[in-house]
Write a structure and sequence with these properties.
Number of helices: 32
Radius of gyration: 53 Å
Largest sheet: 7 strands, mixed
Helix content: 40-55%
Distance between the termini: 144 Å
Strand content: 15-25%
Number of strands: 24
Strand order of the largest sheet: 18-19-17-16-20-23-24
Bound molecules: adenosine-5'-diphosphate
Shape: elongated
Structural class: alpha/beta
Length: 871
């Protein structure tokens, strides 16, 4: 028997009267303190006292409800447990109370209550004197047998519990290390016992009695556990059976065995993929990556999100045309014929494309410059690109770059992102299935920039012949050779193409078309194409050239032919309805004429006459006539003309002039209007204007102010009654030299039709002319348009875009165009027929401009006459 360290408790103990639970020696219990006596005890003994002794309390169980012990001390249980207060936790809510953690030390018996208030204190006698136990025992053997029996049951009970729980394992160890005499109390507090049973154990002061009383409790607990385990086992067996069935199903999924259809398919796919990787002709580096990835894929469960990612990646890798290409057809003569057949005019562009192809024929290496076609919309840039692919016998793919502002659009996303995919270049290659297609990079001038990087920078690598043989898309993560791809770019303007990108490309300007060119394009290409698309034949519809001209001048205003094409489409649709209706009515006469390509009216009639069968059957109805589209039909189909404003109407007042502007959409005529009002010499500018244009306006005004005397310009209001006074005043001011055009006058300059921002210096001459008209009161010629930059001294400097501007003037039906003298050389580019229709005035200073812009020149003498006429 192990020796027990003696516990000596004080002879007087403060009493903690508990209502619920019984604390046995050797166990720990949490108890709530809320009665007045107990609260006092905690406050004065535990919270104030500092010695160990002050934390020893006498815990008396089974006292009546503390609420009822208001005054007198209730009858106390004679036997209690001396306890050590280990922890005090206080709270004020919902009412002041403490929670005590107490550990039982030994039994005691109340000898006498010595004090009742504020909390009871009693003289006590310690009952458990464990060290004396062997001597007081009747026979050591007897107790030994009892304790052995108890120990056996205790061990049996603990071993029935789950030994993997640390507390249970510890309890098992305690059974061996603790003195046997302490075990009944400890086990009683652990096993399921009622308060009454615990109280009986507490009262069992004799050890023998205690053992005897606890053994049945242990046995009861063991039986209970046995019963519980039995029922649990049933349940567990069921569970195990379920678990056992599942793995059986999984095992059947092993390849080769009888398998679920889906899984089988997946496995087949992987085998196929593996085979494709083995047989594909991808470069070694890419092959290595694929082999690695397929190994990973095989190990991956299909439910993993990465499974799908890896599989998609591998599928793309095997699909890419690493080594697949088409053979180029390099016949320059055939190419020329094809380009001529497909495209009317565009001589400069076609010439450059043929040069490019010729070099390609002589030197089988495509490290040439990247061609970039720059011009207004609808002039055929894209379709020339397509023709280049056709002549070479290559695949064609268009990549629209307008609005692209994320560099991963070009270079792909890294595979770490969910939803990652390759960039447009790699995607395009996958689509065409060969590694030498023609890629048309459409609208490079409309690339955006954003936080996601600069796509233009990504394009640099793609377009650089020195770098693009190992272009690495982020998604692929292996290099792909782009050197065989023929890149052609298109743009509306070079102004917004990043300089580094511009540097990699050879710019070929594609200007807008003249009216005559448009008519030719319409009749050679657009109309036949539209007829075919609408299932019409030339025998059913006829569009004469005058009608085409009407559409061009009155229904469209563009540099290219896209709107024209759309209008022709609208006409064809309307005619298709008529034809379909007619066919319905004359179903029996529906005998399609075979003459193709030469659909003229006479021809059809002739055919009709020469055919004896139709002679007999068509007696009732004449042979079908083509529907002729004249101006009335045009009005019916397209509505009233959209652009019919007479230019001369707008020039019926002083202070209006026509300028010529260049925009990315082609040349445009631009009306500049000016008016004046009383004010303080302020200049107001309206319309969508850039800064350079504003500067031009200031320059023009300054020049006019300084030359006001020379040209007899005045800011006077033309009030008839005051005219003599004005004349006198004007001469006086002139003489004194203090006259200023802006004195007491505000000027408003307006540039109408301004949805598109206009900027550039070329409006200088127009603004000066317009203001000269305003201050002189004379009308500008209604058939004259002008362009040119001005200086403060009145010189006229050259400007760009002359061809487009002249074409715009021609489109608008103007007759005279004033251009800077140094732009004379640009007139050579203008088609002869346009040059014939227009008269060109070249000017080197504003004097010359004004003389050409006003009828009879702009001279000093005209003023009195003008004033008379105004009267
Ligand atoms: P862009 O790319 O310059 O905006 P597109 O190439 O899309 O213009 O051309 C628009 C339409 O005009 C196409 O149907 C094209 O065939 C036609 N087209 C333009 N220019 C010509 C031309 N010179 N000859 C024949 N068709 C032309």
């Amino acid at each position: 028997m192990s020796s027990v360290s003696p516990i000596q408790i004080p002879s007087r103990l403060p009493l903690l009267l508990t209502h619920e639970g019984v604390l046995l020696p050797g166990s720990t219990m949490r108890t709530s303190v809320d009665s007045a006596r107990n609260l006092q005890l905690v406050r004065s003994r535990l919270l104030k006292g500092t010695s160990l002794q002050s934390t020893i309390l006498g815990v008396i169980p089974n006292t009546p409800d503390p609420a009822s012990d208001a005054q007198d001390l209730p009858p106390l249980h004679r036997i209690g447990t001396a306890a050590l207060a280990v922890q005090v936790v206080g709270s004020n809510w919902p009412k002041p109370h403490y929670t005590l953690l107490i550990t039982g030390l030994c039994r005691f018996q109340i000898v006498q209550v010595v004090k009742e208030k504020p909390y009871p204190v009693a003289e006590v006698e310690q009952l458990d004197r464990l060290e004396e136990f062997p001597n007081t025992c009747k026979t050591r053997e007897e107790l030994g047998e009892l304790s052995e029996q108890f120990y056996k049951y205790a061990v049996q009970l603990v071993e029935m519990l789950d030994m993997s729980v640390p507390a249970v394992a510890k309890l098992r160890r305690l059974l061996d290390s603790l003195p046997r005499e302490a075990l009944p109390d400890i086990l009683t507090s652990i096993i399921r016992t009622s308060n009454k049973e615990k109280l009986q154990i507490l009262d069992a002061v004799s050890l023998e009695e205690r053992f005897k009383m606890t053994i049945p409790l242990l046995v009861r607990q063991i039986e209970g556990l046995k019963l519980l385990q039995k029922t649990r086992k049933h349940k567990q067996d069921d569970d195990k059976r379920v678990i056992a069935i599942r793995p059986m199903r999984r095992i059947t999924h092993v390849p080769g065995a009888l398998a679920d259809e889906d899984e089988d398919e997946d496995n087949d796919d992987i085998v196929m993929l593996e085979k494709k990787i083995r047989t594909s002709s991808m470069p070694e580096q890419a092959h290595k990556v694929c082999v690695k990835e397929i190994k990973r894929l095989k190990k991956m469960p299909q439910s993993m999100p990465e499974y799908a990612l890896t599989r998609n990646y591998l599928e793309l890798m095997v699909e890419l045309p690493w080594n697949k290409s088409t053979t180029d057809r390099l016949d320059i003569r055939a190419a020329r014929v094809l380009l001529d057949n497909d495209h009317y005019a565009m001589e400069k562009l076609k010439k450059r494309v043929l040069e490019y192809l010729a070099v390609r024929q002589l030197k089988n290496n495509l490290k040439g410059p990247i061609l970039c076609f720059v011009g207004p919309p609808g002039v055929g840039k894209t379709s020339v690109g397509r023709s280049v692919a056709k002549t070479l016998g290559r695949e064609f793919h268009r990549i629209a770059l307008g609005g692209v502002c994320d560099q991963s659009d070009i270079r792909g996303h890294r595979r770490t992102y969910v939803g990652s995919m390759p960039g447009r270049i790699i995607n395009g290659l996958k689509t065409v299935g060969v590694n030498n297609p023609v890629f048309l990079l459409d609208e490079v001038d409309k690339l955006g920039k954003s936080l996601q990087g600069d796509p233009a920078a990504a394009l640099l690598e793609v377009l650089d012949p020195e770098q693009n043989h190992n272009f690495t898309d982020h998604y692929l993560n292996v290099a792909f050779d782009l050197s065989q791809v023929l890149f052609i770019a298109t743009a509306n303007t070079t102004a917004t193409i990043p300089p580094a990108l511009l540097d990699r490309m050879e710019i070929i300007q594609v200007p807008g078309y003249t009216q005559e060119e448009k008519i030719e394009i319409a009749h050679r290409h657009l109309i036949p194409k539209q007829l075919e698309q609408h299932g019409l034949t030339p025998q059913q519809i006829q569009i004469p050239q005058v009608t085409t001209l009407d559409i061009i001048t009155r229904y469209t205003r563009e540099a290219g032919v896209r709107s024209l094409d759309r209008k022709l489409g609208a006409i064809c649709r309307a005619v298709a309805v008529k034809v379909a209706e007619g066919q319905h009515r004359e179903a029996k006469l529906d005998r399609p004429d075979v003459a193709e390509g030469e659909g003229c009216k006479e021809h059809t009639l002739e055919d009709g006459k020469s055919d004896p069968v139709s002679d007999t059957t068509d007696l009732a109805l004449p042979p079908e006539m083509p529907i002729l589209i004249d101006f009335h039909a045009l009005k019916d189909i397209l509505g009233p003309p959209m652009y019919e404003m007479e230019v001369s109407e707008r020039l019926s007042q002083p202070g209006v002039a026509i300028g010529l502007a260049w925009t990315p959409l082609g040349g445009e005529i631009m009306f500049v209007e000016a008016s004046r009002m009383d004010g303080e010499g302020q200049l107001t500018l309206t319309g969508q204007l850039g800064n350079v244009m504003k500067e031009s306006a200031h320059l023009a005004i300054s020049w006019l102010r300084s030359n006001a005397k020379k040209y007899h310009l005045t800011n006077e209001k033309e009030k008839t009654g005051l005219i003599f006074l004005h004349q006198n005043l004007f001469s006086f001011l002139k003489a004194s030299g203090s006259f200023d055009l802006l004195e007491n006058t505000d000027i408003h300059l307006h540039f109408p039709a301004g949805a598109v921002t206009k900027d550039g210096p070329s409006a200088g001459v127009t603004i000066a002319t317009c203001l000269a008209s305003l201050f002189s009161g004379r009308l500008v010629r209604s058939d004259v348009a002008m362009t040119g930059e001005i200086t403060l001294r009145g010189l006229v400097l050259p400007v760009g875009g002359i061809k487009d501007k002249v074409l715009a003037a021609h489109r608008a039906g103007l007759k005279r165009v004033i251009i800077p003298q140094r732009n004379e050389k640009d007139l050579e580019e203008i088609p002869a027929n346009v040059r014939q229709d227009l008269s060109f005035i070249t000017a080197s200073c504003l004097d010359e401009v004004l003389n050409a812009a006003f009828d009879g020149g702009f001279t000093v003498k005209t003023r009195p006459g003008l004033l008379n006429s105004k009267l």
